[in-house]
Amino acid sequence: MSKQPQPISPLKNFFAGGFGGVCLVFAGHPLDTIKVRLQTQPKPKPGERLIYAGTLDCFKKTLAKEGMKGLYKGMAAPIIGVTPMFAVCFFGFGLGKKLQQKTPHDILTYPQLFAAGMLSGVFTTAIMAPGERIKCLLQIQASTGEVKYAGPMDCVKQLYGQSGIRGIYKGTALTLMRDVPASGMYFMSYEWLKNLLTPAGKSHNELSVPSILFAGGMAGICNWAVAIPADVLKSRFQTAPEGKYPNGFRDVLRELVREEGVASLYKGFNAVMLRAFPANAACFLGFEFAMKFLNWLAPNL
């Protein structure tokens, strides 16, 4: 069970979540670039080798060819998108918890925390889907060497020009399929680990920095363990040429499994897991610090 000493404030969750999101992008973007490049690299022709042999190879080649800047490619879109997205994500979780409480000090069960987390996944998809589409397109154009978009805004303009708002929101259903169960897992596992690491008789507010980092990092790993298959399908679908998959994700799934087997649904697994721990540890640490600051600043909000 989760102990909530302070009444839940979705508004404070909103601001603290935004700050957590900024911390997450800075800590995790380089490995996100590698993940997308590994997931979307073309199948080699007979006799040719893959562009990247794996996570480390992709890291080395990106660094050699493009320097540190290459690892932070396309970061403007996630910073602009992630800050409000995490604000909305933590707001959704706070609201989901509040809606299930009969009194402000009710302690929620783990299934209730999972449900609150799933609500946050629904909230974030509206912001997440276009941001992810733009980010994936910018990340892969850098590795293919064919420069089609000058930057995030140019990408939005071109997509809108080609197929209207639908072009920008391509892959929304897959983003929902990925984020709703994964967000439930994310928040539930974080609360569970916080409970596990809190010494008897102490409150969550007294958790040490290493404990918060560990709980946040592990929550990120639990989140991605659920999210990866849908994420691979989403990256493929969002970066495919128009009309390639007329039946949406079913076509992507069939093609992937037929050509590369079920294991291909876990492409980029190492890069994702390597990124998930530090990025989410940074996110929750940022969130908890911002939350403490807001509780001190406005205790009754």
TrEMBL record:
What residue range is the signal peptide? none
Keyword Cell inner membrane in the entry? The reply is no
Where are Solcar repeat segments found?
8-99, 108-196, 207-293
**Chain ranges passing through the membrane:** 12-31, 75-95, 107-129
Instruction: Name the catalysed reactions.
Output: an O-acyl-(R)-carnitine(in) + (R)-carnitine(out) = an O-acyl-(R)-carnitine(out) + (R)-carnitine(in); (R)-carnitine(in) = (R)-carnitine(out); O-octanoyl-(R)-carnitine(in) + (R)-carnitine(out) = O-octanoyl-(R)-carnitine(out) + (R)-carnitine(in); O-acetyl-(R)-carnitine(in) + (R)-carnitine(out) = O-acetyl-(R)-carnitine(out) + (R)-carnitine(in)
Task: Enumerate the UniProt keywords alphabetically.
Answer: Membrane, Mitochondrion, Repeat, Transmembrane, Transmembrane helix, Transport
From the UniProt record, give one GO term of the biological process aspect: carnitine transmembrane transport
This entry carries the following GO cellular component terms, namely: mitochondrial membrane
Q: Which InterPro entries match?
A: MCP_transmembrane, Mitochondrial_Carrier
Give the PROSITE patterns listed for this entry: SOLCAR
Q: Which domain of life is it from?
A: Eukaryota
Q: What's a single GO MF annotation on this record?
A: O-acyl-L-carnitine transmembrane transporter activity
Which cell locations does it reside in? Mitochondrion membrane
Q: What does this protein do?
A: Mediates the electroneutral exchange of acylcarnitines (O-acyl-(R)-carnitine or L-acylcarnitine) of different acyl chain lengths (ranging from O-acetyl-(R)-carnitine to long-chain O-acyl-(R)-carnitines) with free carnitine ((R)-carnitine or L-carnitine) across the mitochondrial inner membrane, via a ping-pong mechanism. Key player in the mitochondrial oxidation pathway, it translocates the fatty acids in the form of acylcarnitines into the mitochondrial matrix, where the carnitine palmitoyltransferase 2 (CPT-2) activates them to undergo fatty acid beta-oxidation.
Give the similarity note: Belongs to the mitochondrial carrier (TC 2.A.29) family.
Q: What is this protein called?
A: Mitochondrial carnitine/acylcarnitine carrier protein
